[in-house]
Q: What sequence folds into this?
């Protein structure tokens, strides 16, 4: 059994910077992060151990300082937080901020905004929170439910696979051939790199281990991409979840991880797989004539 690591592993810069800012701010005084700073339980546990509070609702925040997560939020929500007297610390990823600006530019130019993403995801709620009218779509069926418009402006959640995004944009064009449709590509580069690497990995491996939080959208998307290309996929958060029987008969095992997965977790899983690989002997079948 051999181990093949994806070319892009470890945290993306947006998550790394958000974490560094949380550590720095928490060292200065009490801090509440509004929602999960990143969708990774290992990282959240570490933050709690450092005294950082994590509250999903603003009404439960009791510290003067509040951090916006890497997923961003709307200006309306920002104003509400500041209006309650909190000091607001911004950990919004610059690529999420850029997505906000591009969606607002579409609206200013007269396009009806359509966001490709998960309606309930915090990033999508932030992207749509300042819009008076919009639609969120994720499946072809969602396009069938859209009302006709003269001009559609399409953007997406930063962690959606670009192939799915392009497919839905084309589907929108064919459903409304007389509408003007402008698409702005807001899928972030780290997501694209990981998706490409996952595709490559799953073509070459029997089994792929995808590491990341249960609520992480980009981790789920990586697992779906690997499964679509025929690999047996096991999604785990920590090394403790790995099972020897998953790898029975596997010749090549792939390893990839979501953008909020700490290196220490990936390293532990890689070491576990290496130990297993050292124990597994692939039988060589001799043909006797
Ligand atoms: S996944 Fe992309 S958008 Fe999200 S924090 Fe990382 S770099 Fe930023």
A:
């Amino acid at each position: 059994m051999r181990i093949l690591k994806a070319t892009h592993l470890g945290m993306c810069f947006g998550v790394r910077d958000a974490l560094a800012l949380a550590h720095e701010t928490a060292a200065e005084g009490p801090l509440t992060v509004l929602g999960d700073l990143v969708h990774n339980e290992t990282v959240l546990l570490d933050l709690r151990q450092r005294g950082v509070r994590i509250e999903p609702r603003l009404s439960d925040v009791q510290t003067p300082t509040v951090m916006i997560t890497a997923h961003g939020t709307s200006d309306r929500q920002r104003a509400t937080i500041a209006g309650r007297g909190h000091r607001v610390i911004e950990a919004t990823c610059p690529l999420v901020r850029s997505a906000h600006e591009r969606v607002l530019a579409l609206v200013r130019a007269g396009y009806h905004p359509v966001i490709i993403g998960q309606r309930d995801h915090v990033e999508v709620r932030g992207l749509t929170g300042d819009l008076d009218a919009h639609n969120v779509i994720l499946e072809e069926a969602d396009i069938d439910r859209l009302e006709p418009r003269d001009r559609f402006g399409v953007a997406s959640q930063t962690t959606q696979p670009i192939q799915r995004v392009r497919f839905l944009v084309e589907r929108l064009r064919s459903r409304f051939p007389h509408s003007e449709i402008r698409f702005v590509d807001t899928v972030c580069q780290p997501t694209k790199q990981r998706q490409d690497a996952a595709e490559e990995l799953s073509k070459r491996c029997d089994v792929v281990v995808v590491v990341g939080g249960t609520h992480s959208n980009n981790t789920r998307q990586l697992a779906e991409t690997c499964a679509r290309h025929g690999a047996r996929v096991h999604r785990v958060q920590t090394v403790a979840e790995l099972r020897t029987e998953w790898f029975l008969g596997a010749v090549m095992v792939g390893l990839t991880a979501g953008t909020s997965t700490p290196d220490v977790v990936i390293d532990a899983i890689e070491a576990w797989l290496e130990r297993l690989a050292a124990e597994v002997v692939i039988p060589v079948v001799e043909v006797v004539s």
